[in-house]
UniProtKB/TrEMBL annotation:
Residues 35-156 form the NEAT domain. The lineage of its organism: Bacteria, Bacillati, Bacillota, Bacilli, Bacillales. It comes from Paenibacillus algorifonticola. The keyword Secreted applies. Pfam families: NEAT. This is Iron Transport-associated domain-containing protein. It is a peptidoglycan-anchor. InterPro entries: IsdA, NEAT_dom, NEAT_dom_sf. It is found in: Secreted, Cell wall.
Length: 156
């Protein structure tokens, strides 16, 4: 009797722990409720290729970026200082290794704003940039990743 009682107790405990674990496992799926169509700001960091530390490119970014949500699709506009040194910004939207030029939204003085679709705001966005600084004989293509901060999303 005593044995079956403690068996019952421990199986109840087991069930409780299992339910708790399941609740936590499922939680991330609900962490990002669907954003209503509209315009938002979102912070981001440009990461050095394959690392979680800020890239040199990050220092040229104007933050936050503008996030446009339309029919549940994300479009991000980022603005860059010293734009004449950054002739190309390309993104690989779906991680298939194919990079496409970001759309040029506009320029102002030596800043430019470019836009691109983002499939998943929680994923690192593979990005390539071309840096050309003629007086330094600097002409390099670099790979970086853009990491958005979903928790920073605010109305535009
Ligand atoms: C006075 C201007 C600049 C100087 C002197 C400079 C110098 C350098 C040097 C010495 C490196 C490391 C060597 C290498 O990996 O090739 C580097 C890396 C890099 N630079 Fe520049 N750079 C300048 C401007 C820029 C600008 C405007 C960008 C904007 C996109 C940029 C993006 C990068 C990137 C992405 C790397 C790779 C490492 C990382 O992600 O931080 N640089 N730069």
């Amino acid at each position: 009797m005593l044995k079956s009682l403690s068996l019952k107790k421990s199986s109840t405990m087991f069930l409780l722990v299992a339910m708790l674990l399941m609740a936590f496992a499922v939680a991330p799926a609900f962490a990002n409720p669907t954003l209503a169509d509209g315009e938002y700001t979102i912070n981001f960091t440009v990461l050095k290729d394959g690392t979680s530390s800020a890239s040199t490119m990050d220092g040229y970014a104007v933050k936050p970026a503008k996030l446009i949500v339309e029919n549940g699709q994300f479009y991000v506009e980022t603005t860059w200082n010293n734009a004449s040194w950054i002739p190309d910004i390309q993104v690989d939207q779906d991680g298939d290794g194919v990079y496409t030029d970001a759309d040029l939204i506009g320029t102002s003085g030596n800043t430019k704003t470019v836009g691109f679709e983002v499939a998943d705001l929680s994923a690192k966005l593979e990005t390539k940039t071309h840096v050309v600084i003629p007086f330094l004989f600097y002409d390099s293509w670099y790979k970086v990743q853009i990491q958005f901060d979903e928790s920073s999303i605010a109305p535009y």
